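Page 47, continued from p. 46.
Same chain as before, 186 aa.
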Amino acid sequence: MSSIQAVFLDRDGVLNTHLPGRYVENTQQLVVLPGVAQAIRRLNNSGILTIVISNQQGIARGIMTRAALDIVTKELERRLYDEAGAHLDEINYCVHSRHDGCACRKPRPGMILDSLARHGMDAALTVFVGDSGTDIEAAAAAGVGSKALVLTGANRYYDASRFAVLPDFVFRDMNDLVDWVLEEHP
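Result:
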């Protein structure tokens, strides 16, 4: 069993393809990134919780409905399971606009803090995996132990000057991240 209690995961750009300037509005637009299902299964097998923390302001903007988001979520879960027997332990979405001032929208830490409290976890024993600066900022604000950037979404290369808060680690993809989690935190 790992010393890591949970891996928090952004959705778009980490689990599935990032659509620049757009939202995954339906299951036809949902493309799970290569190797993600296997990576999540490896975390599942190690007893590490996998928890999605994702902004989905397309709902607040009227681009999609909550029902459509739920359908996409169920399809994501189905594909992860069908491909590798993987599952997500919890999924948290902020559906507010960036102008709403809510505590849950990244870069604010509300969703992470709520999940930590719900599971009685120590933030220092968690990892946050994101593809953008707001992910890293939210993780830092929540006191997450390790802030990791994967280069599969909004950022395809790492340029420190583009980040207000720097990630602790940068990985090519989810498989590289899971290798690190399982090797460095047995």
